[in-house]
Amino acid sequence: MTSHIPPTGHDAFHPDLPDHDHDQDHEHGTAGSTLPPRARLHHIRADALDGDTAQTGGMRRFAAISGSSVGSERIWMGQTHVAPDTASSNHHHGASETAIHVIKGHPEFVFLDNSGGTPEEIRIRTSPGDYIFVPPYVPHREENPSADEEAVVVIARSTQEAIVVNLPELYVLGSEPDGAPDSEANAD
């Protein structure tokens, strides 16, 4: 069996096309192309993630795919890092649906449930490879109970930018404390 190694300067799948990674703008993750941003693919390298995005205490978010980085209109994607023995602040993501994929560590996701009549803190313990779905406006927090391992997750949101609404406390959706926005009033 022989393996085909594409010539230098060519795309591995399309050997007749130039390898745009060599012309990569490492700060913005864009290739030197004259095509409009929404008419081509974008490659964002792991070392080009942008930490200048909405943040929550106790964690650090890094944007990869956003309206400002690639011109996306209906999705935001990036990473969140939670240091060992750390909990994020309570927060929600507004009208955005959020999907989370655990890459490293065993982060825990905490929210309140009152289906039994009394609000009860629910803790979802995860492992690498697990997924979490966070519906719009649901207050929650992330925790990393490990004493020595950082937790890293990949996040995808249904909005082009990272929406983060930091909260003083968790509450059950539909029973917001005084002064908190009513989720139905803010729904699109």
CA radius of gyration is: 20 Å
Class by alpha and beta content: mainly beta
Question: What helical percentage do the residues reach?
Answer: under 10%
Topology order in helix (H) and strand (E) letters: EHEEEEEEEEEEH
How much of the sequence lies in strands comes to 25-35%
Spatial shape: globular
Q: Give a short account of the largest sheet.
A: 5 strands, antiparallel
Task: Give an account of the 3D structure.
The protein is built from two helices and eleven strands; from the N terminus they run βαββββββββββα. It has 188 residues and is mainly beta. It has a five-stranded antiparallel sheet. The longest helix is centred in the middle third of the chain and has 4 residues, at 67-70. It is globular. The chain starts with 59 loop residues before the first strand and ends with a helix.
Features:
188 residues; mainly beta; four-stranded antiparallel sheet
Write the layout of secondary structure elements.
Layout: E1 60-65, H1 67-70, E2 76-82, E3 86-87, E4 90-92, E5 98-104, E6 108-113, E7 120-125, E8 131-134, E9 141-144, E10 151-157, E11 165-167, H2 183-186
Antiparallel strand pairs: 1-2, 2-10, 3-9, 4-11, 5-8, 5-10, 6-7, 6-9
